RNA sequence: GCGGGUGUAGCUCAGUGGUAGAGCGUCACGUUGCCAACGUGAAUGUCGUCGGUUCGAAUCCGAUCACCCGCUCCA
């Protein structure tokens, strides 16, 4: 970041206009639109599917096949990456080990008064309340209270975490804070409007009589009186966050009977498929640490609020690398990946100050990254986040958290034997070292990448005949080139069809090569501008006599003339092949 | 999850109780020798969905769904 340059204006492009173009030109459609759509899901049309494939291919080629495009790692050696393609559905124990199932399946409350922000299930909080006896004697009033139709001042004085009422009672009876001050004549269960409570007469040390109640803290009480509920850990009031349902995991059933015994989950990240195959890859493919395993694929999360076009959707595709290295080298590799991934996005056209690299502060680090060398985000300033930014890719030092978890839960030996380390033996060879590798995880969002590229490419220039156009980098443009006969006569269509066939044969594996003879030449150029086609080749009268064609550049509108036989070489160079 | 807004042709939108419209785009034919050219013609609508009020609903009422914005949330 430079400090003396003027502030970049926020991204002022209109998201409505971008979405409109995406629909009009077949980039993105609302999923199952003819049925009214479905919240949080989007489909890609012909243009979008090819754009997305081109981005995925660029990643696959540059990261996996070319090992960071040939850039040497911090150890001075070529970067080694191998791909896998693992299942969306894994053994449910995978997600127990990774922590995805246990912590985030139920409404959770976070206790901000504890140093580490303890989190517990909302329905596991039980409160101990006291009511003056005269009120309790009026059972009608009490019933109204229990049904939530009226409030009487009976906020819990004390809370505990328990999964049942009985467990709560046991805990409270062992808690000096209550037993020191009160004597009880025995708790009995009462049920009012389906709500079960334990109630007892209580006598305070000074002789005052109360009704004591142990009850589960209801959602209603959270909503109304959360400020007054004391922390179960510290006793402080006003320290609980409202219950939040983290229905992160998509649940499904294996087999036709669909019973609770057959529960499985759609993966919330591709990473775990890599971790559980770490040993397989090490044992079968002659890789050695440091090396990475890469995977692209769909993941699923029940987002709280899917929003902002495709930015936060419930089904999305990731491009993930888990890079395994010796713990001592983790810092170097973290820096390497962070910088190279930033460079990669820039090279695809996300230049300028709409793209930033942001190092996380300590307090926002994920649980698995606390001990690590750091986490950073590559963020893009989308029109809907401006002047803020939205995450495109996260680069995290995950330490050995995941491998350690799987080692424990699966009781598998995942330690790596590194024969290049350890003290030297008598013969001068290292003795080797067993260790659990640390992991640097560059995890990118493919759909978010596509969205960023769409937003970046969208350009309005009122001075052009076609003001609205898409400035895709040629490498990811879904249509690579178009061939036109200037007019539909005099043998021009035949000549153009010939060139079209040749280009399609040579470059069709990279993207579409279009042929268009409909309507005026200006309209055809405009159509291609809107689809983001970088080059248009036009056959005119001269083509028939001297074998030259014109090539028009999308961004400048400039034309130049070249020999027809040079067209393929020209386009190949522009596409970087 | 809460609050606000929007929903009519592929896109942008008009239509406030009485025949479903415009511009652009698309397609066809003609014209056209390089930048959304011109002429003629054509196709395209569960008016988001369901229900109610009414002789009659795109229009009024209710519910619901989707999208947008703000809050919240996002290991």
Please characterize this protein's 3D structure.
- By secondary structure, the chain is an alpha+beta fold.
- The protein contains 18 helices and 29 strands.
- The strands form 8 sheets. The chain has a 7-stranded mixed beta sheet. Strands 6, 7, 8, 9, 10 and 11 form a 6-stranded antiparallel beta sheet that branches. A 5-stranded mixed beta sheet has the order 26-25-27-28-29.
- Helix 15 links the parallel strand 25 (479-485) and strand 26.
- Helix 3 (92-98) crosses helix 13 (401-410).
- The longest helix has 20 residues, at 46-65.
- It is elongated, with a radius of gyration of 32 Å.
- The protein binds one RNA strand of 75 nucleotides through residues 15-16, 19-21, 23-24, 26, 30, 33, 35-39, 98-100, 103-104, 119, 242, 244-246, 248, 268, 301, 303-305, 307-309, 312, 366-368, 384, 464-467, 484, 486-488, 490, 492, 518-527, 529-530, 538, 540-541, 550, 552, 557, 559.
Keywords:
577 residues; 18 helices; 29 strands; RNA-binding; alpha+beta; 6-stranded antiparallel sheet; 7-stranded mixed sheet; single chain; disordered N terminus
Overall geometric form: elongated
Average pLDDT: 85
Number of helices: 18
> Percent helix among the residues?
25-40%
Strands ordered across the widest β-sheet: 3-15-16-22-19-18-17
Structural class given helices, strands, pairing?
Answer: alpha+beta
Q: What are the segments in which pLDDT stays under 50 over at least 5 consecutive residues? A: 1-9
**Overall strand count:** 29
